[in-house]
Design goal:
Blueprint lengths: L2 H10 L7 E6 L10 H4 L9 E6 H17 L17
Antiparallel strand pairs: 1-2
Length: 88
């Protein structure tokens, strides 16, 4: 179980085997996301938001993000940043 998942379950009172997963923002795959404090010791390790979402929704969002990274050739490096625009 990831740190993000454990934190979200604990903070939301979710039990193991629950039919939801924890989704985080910023994305865990970014330096600003849940894993950011691993790369930047000055970053608050809890500087992200988590919410329980359905497993299907979380999986679909993860697949779309992976496709975005691949299609736009997003690689790890200082010159390959991107912005996320949130709309409703």
């Amino acid at each position: 179980m990831s740190r993000t998942t454990a934190f979200a379950r604990r903070s939301r009172g979710l039990l193991t085997g629950y039919f939801r997963e924890c989704d985080e923002f910023p994305f865990a795959s970014t330096y600003e996301g849940a894993a950011g404090s691993r790369y930047n010791p000055r970053q608050d390790p809890l500087n992200f938001s988590v919410m329980p979402v359905s497993k299907d929704s979380n999986g679909a969002a993860g697949n779309l993000l992976a496709q975005y990274y691949k299609l736009n050739r997003i690689i790890d490096g200082p010159d390959d940043g991107f912005m996320v625009k949130i709309t409703s």
